[in-house]
Each structure stands twice: as structure tokens, then as C-alpha cells.
Amino acid sequence: MVLKVGTIGTSWITEQFIEAILASREYDLGAIYSRDASKAKVINEKFATNATAFTDLTAFFASDIDVVYIASPNALHYRQILQAIENDKHVIVEKPAVITPMQFEMVYSKLREHPNVRFFEAARHIHQPNFKKIAAQIEKMEQIQGATFVYNKYSSRFDDFLAGKNPNVFNPDFAGGAIEDLGVYPIYAAVALFGLPKDAQYFATKLSNGADGRGTAILRYPEFDVTLIFGKNSNSYLASEIYGLEDSIVIDSIAELTSILYHHNPTEAEQIADLPHENPMLAEVTVFAEIINNFDLHNQEYRDLLMLSQRVNNVIYQLRQTAALSFPADQEK
Amino acid sequence: MVLKVGTIGTSWITEQFIEAILASREYDLGAIYSRDASKAKVINEKFATNATAFTDLTAFFASDIDVVYIASPNALHYRQILQAIENDKHVIVEKPAVITPMQFEMVYSKLREHPNVRFFEAARHIHQPNFKKIAAQIEKMEQIQGATFVYNKYSSRFDDFLAGKNPNVFNPDFAGGAIEDLGVYPIYAAVALFGLPKDAQYFATKLSNGADGRGTAILRYPEFDVTLIFGKNSNSYLASEIYGLEDSIVIDSIAELTSILYHHNPTEAEQIADLPHENPMLAEVTVFAEIINNFDLHNQEYRDLLMLSQRVNNVIYQLRQTAALSFPADQEK
Questions:
Q1: Is A146 within 8 Å of B214 when comparing Cβ atoms?
Q2: What pLDDT is recorded for position B37?
Q3: Same domain assignment for residues A15 and A101
Q4: Alpha-carbon span B317 to B328, nearest angstrom
Q5: Which residue has the higher pLDDT, B91 or B10?
Q6: Same domain, yes or no, for B154 and B252?
Q7: Minimal Cα distance from A208: which residue of B?
Q8: If you count Cβ atoms within 10 Å of the first and of the last residue's Cβ in chain B, which end, N or C, has fewer?
Q9: In the predicted model, is pLDDT for residue A287 greater than 90?
Q10: Which residues of chain A approach chain B closer than 8 Å at the C-beta?
């Protein structure tokens, strides 16, 4: 069944998502929510689609769409997820899906009331074929002794921050900062590959407004530690790495996964990545459609993804506590 | 004045040191201590020197050498340093010079009793011209937001460890493990460039005998954190990095300093390293000879090096405490 999608949010990531769903041939674009109706027109023209424009969220949710894609600012996800589930729409929400474990519990509880609704966090990288190549290589290695995952890119919004403005992505009032943005990628990768850590600690370098501009997080597992380096106010040129004995997996970017070099030792290496599809969201939307359309075949896979999503939510929350990083959502009852 | 050197230890590093002092033309090799007299013969033949062989340490210290180079196992440094100072010999000792802050205090106290003796820790990398280029580049950058220093190399001795042997370099009874070996390089670099951290924490991955096979250390400064990744039981293929805003300094190896790329932004970079001398110890031995021979001109530089050495000793000790890594030297009164 071709799934009818409605989108919330009209930034570049929504356009990348629309391109991916159309390329997958599993979805149609049925509705576009934006406070500014002209944005829907631009999108319909760009993608040769005929989606209905909504400026009212209630009307949007009442329409005949099957799936809602949520790419609004992080702090708005939670209410929109609940509203989507209440309207029996499947949900694909950008990471981080929600901010607190309590919010996640509420979403989970709402899903139990609507057992035919599927909920997906759009962690695009873990659905890439190249991510599965990393997981398979880890299985083959004699011993794993840790990892370092890096995702650190200077955001042009930091120019605004330095100019005295208070952009949302660096504003704690909107759950802004590094960990809730680029940090999600390395955290998702670590939890997907190695499971829930037994302990976690975050060393955040804070900006004057209390947001984390960058930081280093340590995830502690029984046999090894994983070091995560992420930030939005500086650039890193380092790769990511999984340590074996003499061998190591070196990944150009833990979010893009373009190159995966398996170093047998310091003198021998082989490329194990395939050339990824140019749209990095194609893999995930294909997986989500398959789960929605053939749920009985993928019940366990769906539960695993939901569990992973909850674990990531928990780890991020725990890391924030260790760095005394709090958001308004933390105070919600 | 050409300085007459006596060496303790006959491994590859002593040979590299001898090559460096001869290349500098500031030193002669006068004495070689080894329990095995045949080793002195091998060295004299290899370097066309005529050093006296000693198998007795007391006789070695009583000989007419000016400088003692100590490259024995770490746990033996302390007693040998004290003995050298008592015999009014200048000391060049491999890093880590000593294991505990108390040992450092005792060395310092002994130096006060022998005011004409100079004491140097052989942290070769911080004396390299390329290290000074890094320091100069940092001065020019608008803002420093942290750093990641990596030094992680698989040791062939780890094969022995895995085979059930207990090699010294992985044995806590001999102050073995990653932090007291390769870890010294990134720690020295961080403290030399950024000073004493206000806090420090070490996440060690321990071996079955309690030694740290590898680990991640966080040095916390008022404005940023420095992440150090080091180990002896795995290989890393990552560079080291100092974060600015859009700009970053990327160093191929924080110990070797062969390439230093200053990235203005993700698309523009310039190489600021000079080709280093093939012997990485030449720079330090030249500096040490100059300080010894013209002390009045270099009094402050000498005090700064001594202070740096003490700070590094303190930081390593503090890091070990946070990882519950203890050595027999910690129990000494």
C-alpha cells in the first residue's frame, strides 16, 4: 500500500525526506503543514506533487494522511507526536524524538492505546546498509576494546550566537545545544552497536547561556568504553574508530558512513563500504514502509527499534544530568 | 663545554639518545651501565665510541661523567635519579621521570641540596620546533575551544600478555600500563600548551591484572576541555586536533609532529610543519646542553621545564586516582 504522508516543518531536512519517500515509491506526499501557506506551494512545485496545504494543525491531523513526518524544532515534537497518535497516524519523527524519559513513557503509553499506530525515530544512519556492514565487521573481530565516534561541525548559527542573537539551536529554552543535535548521531550509533551502557558521563563545554556548544561523552560498558566527541561551535577533521587488537574499523563520518576502512594492522586495510545512495534517508523510509505494510513479518524488528529509541533517550537524559544541562521539558509533570 | 654522558638502560631508546647526543656535538659518550657488559661493547662498536662499561651502579656514578641519562624501567628511575644527584651529575631521565608527587618532591628537595645539578625529563616532543609552531598558531587563533590528542599503538608485548606472560610494560607492579607509557605524550602536550587543568578524570579500560590497557582522559580547563585517548593494546588511526571556531589545527601524531595542518575552514588548509630532523631526540638534547652550559641565560626556562615536569607528574597521579589505578610506589613513605 502506498502511504500518504503529511509533513510538519519545511526546512532542508523535510525536503530531503520528501525526495527520499518519492524515490522509495512507497509513499505519496498528501499534506504539508506550515504556518506559511506559500511554503507548501514551493514544495509542490519543486517535487511536482499535489499535497494539500494546511496552516491549521488540527485540520492537518484530521485529513486522510496515513503517516506524519515531524521535523519541527525539537521542543515541539512531543505534543505533535501525541496529537498524531491520537489521530491514528503513523509517526516518523526526527531525532531526538522527545527530550525526557517521561515524555517517552507518555508516547509509549499513547501507543498502547492505539495499537495499530507505528512510531519511528528517524535515525537515518543506523538504517544505512553501510551501518550494517560495521555491525557485521564487529561480529567478525576477535576482540572489541572500545570506540571513538566524532561528529563536530561548525554551525553558521554560531555566527548569530556570537553576534549576540539567541538562535534556537543554541538555546536551552528550546532544548538546543550539541547533544540534542549532532550528538544524537554518535550516541545512536554507540547504543545500536553496543547496547545500553552501564554508566555514562558528559563533559560539556557550555556557552554563556548554559547550552552545550560541544563536549565529550564517555559511555562505559562492562568490557570497554566508548568516547563520543560532538559539537556545533567548532569543526573536527577526525574520523571515527572502533578498536580491536591490532585491527580497527575507521569510519570517515559516523553520520554519513561514506568510507569504512577495516585496518587489519598498520600496513593492511580494506574498504568495506558500498557507495551509499545519494539520499541518506532513502534506507530508513524504505524500512519504515516495509514495517508498516507488513507488520506481522517485522513485529520484532519494530519492537527493537522502539527499544533502541528509548535507550538513546535514556542515555541522552543521563548524560545531560551529569553535565547539569537542563531544559524546560525536564520540569514538566 | 662538551658534556660527558653515562647511560643507564640499553634498549632502542638509549641508542636513539646516543645517536642524538653525538649528532648534537654537545656531548661525548663516557660511560655505559648495564648488568650485561657485552651490551656496552655492542654500543661502542655501533657508534664508534669508547665509553667505559660499568656493571656496578655505584662505580658508574663515581666515574667522571657530567650527565646521567636514565632509560631504565619506570619503577627504577626514582632511586637512580636520587643517586645521580647525590653524585652531582646532571640528570636526563625518560618520561615519566617518577611515579608519585611525593617522589617528585624528594627529587626537588635533593636538587636544592645540589644547586649546580640540572634535572630534565626527556619529553622529546615538546622541544621539537614543530611543537613551538603549534603553540605559536594557538596564539594567533581567535578562540580555542578544546582539543583531542590521540596516541594509541598496539604493543607487541600485548601478544605476550595475551599469551599469559606478565610483561613489565603491562604490569602494575612495575608502574606499567598505558598512562605511564604512551599516555605521557598527550598529557605533556596538553599541560605544555594549556597549563595545569582545574580538574581531570581518567576512564581506564583495565586488563585482567588491573593495568590500564587503554583509556580516555578528560582535562578540564576554565574555558574548555581537552580529551586524551591513549593505549597500548589497540591501534588508532586518528589524528590529534585543537579546536578553534571554524578553524582547527590537525596534527598527524602528537608524539611525532610530522604534519601540522592549519584548517582555516573545511575547504582551506595550510601545512605549517617543517620537516623534522630524523632523530626526534636531537632538539631536546640540544636544549638541555645549552641550559647546562649557559645556565645564567636560561634560568627561567629551566625553572619552567621543572615546573612543567612537576605539573605532568601531578596530573598523571590525579588521573590515576580517578581510575583507581595504584602502584607499589604509591605506598612508599
A1: yes
A2: 87
A3: yes
A4: 13
A5: B91
A6: yes
A7: B223
A8: C
A9: yes
A10: 145-146, 148, 150, 152, 154, 158, 201, 203, 205, 213-216, 218, 220, 223-225, 227, 229, 231, 233-239, 241, 243-248, 250, 261, 263, 265-266
Model confidence at A212, pLDDT cuts 50, 70, 90, reads very high
Whether B325 and B100 have beta carbons less than 8 Å apart is answered as: no
Rounded CA separation B122/B31 (Å): 19
pLDDT at A37 over 90: no
pLDDT higher than 80, residue B333: no
Query: Quick check: helix, strand or coil at residue B12?
Result: helix
pLDDT of B249 = 98
The Cα of B120 is separated from the nearest Cα of chain A by a number of Å equal to 33
B229: nearest CB among A148, A213, A233: A148
B148·A248 Cβ contact <8 A: no
Sign of the CA dihedral running B38, B42, B45, B49: negative
Q: What percent of chain A shows pLDDT beyond 90?
A: 98
Report the pLDDT value the prediction gives residue B168, as an integer from 0 to 100. 92
- Residues of B whose CB is below 8 A from A158: 245
The answer to whether the CB of A284 falls within 8 A of the CB of A17 is no
A38: containing domain: 3-122
Q: In this complex, do B237 and A250 lie within 8 Å of one another by their Cβ atoms? A: yes
Q: What angle do CA A135, A136, A140 make, to 5 degrees?
A: 115
Cell of B183: 599516555
Residues of chain A with Cβ-Cβ distance to B146 below 8 Å are 205, 214, 234
Q: What is the CATH number of the domain that holds B32?
A: 3.40.50.720
Write the residue in A205, A236, A250 that is nearest to B224 by C-beta.
A205
Mean pLDDT value across chain A: 97
Average pLDDT over residues A41-51: 96
